[in-house]
What does this fold into?
Amino acid sequence: MTNKANASTMNWAVQVDDVAVSYRDVLALEHASLHVAAGQVCGLVGMNGSGKSTLLRVIAGVVTPNSGDVRLFDSPVSEALRAARVAYMPQTEDVDWNFPLLVKDVVATGSYRRSRWGRLSRCTDQDVMAALERVNLADVASRQVGALSGGQRKRVFIARALIQGADLLLLDEPFAGVDQETQHELMDVLRGIRDVGATMLVATHASSDIAELCDEVAVISGTVVIHDRPDVVMRPEVLVNAMHGMTVAGKEHAP
Ligand SMILES: Nc1ncnc2c1ncn2[C@@H]1O[C@H](COP(=O)(O)OP(=O)(O)OP(=O)(O)O)[C@@H](O)[C@H]1O
Ligand SMILES: [Mg+2]
It folds into this structure.
């Protein structure tokens, strides 16, 4: 995505270099590299099992790679997490929704930050309600989070990220399993977050929708096969080859 001449001066939000991840005997990612500049929105597309969620888990610090290097805002992942700079929305099926918390409490946990003295600070109830209003969930603030629909749960995560004021949002399938209306609402909220300068990585199957949200798209197939502007990547001949792990002759794929 960026030519080599100015790569060293870029303000990178995400730097993944030559990462490999395996789950026991399943090699999910190998030689995966992805650099995303601060303020960019990068879509991750690929077939089922191609490694999109694994890449997000590595960036979110949930999974430790077998090899390779991951840096966020030019710091180790642990440091970015400690500074609450990263908000991660896992794929719905990765989350246990049976914990007995109210919607407003889940959102409020986004504001917990460790101060220099190790104490936690909290946002006000008004802050929580304002975030819930932005994602159109104010009316269910006092409901158990486990009693929400799939689309509402996704919006809870986004409200939590808003409260957190995260610089980097990692969203795994934010549009999966939600109706058209919710999808439009979510897209509006994400555009709002993009417009205030946050960096976003969005893994999705709904590839038709991401072109309008994303500045760049990476195709994942056990590695990062191609990473470029949406108009370069989102062409049938490029996508079909890339999703099968094949590079396209004559193109530069590395960012
Ligand atoms: N917890 C796990 N334990 C074992 N294998 C896993 C685990 N999570 C993922 N895998 C395997 O790693 C590979 C990549 O999976 P991953 O979930 O990253 O793909 P994905 O692109 O997100 O797929 P989907 O589109 O279905 O969400 C697959 O072969 C998958 O079966
Ligand atoms: Mg996935």
The CA atoms of residues 191 and 213 lie 7 Å apart. The domain at 18-243 is CATH 3.40.50.300 (Rossmann fold). The first helix runs from residue 4 to 7. The chain is about 35% helix and 25% strand.
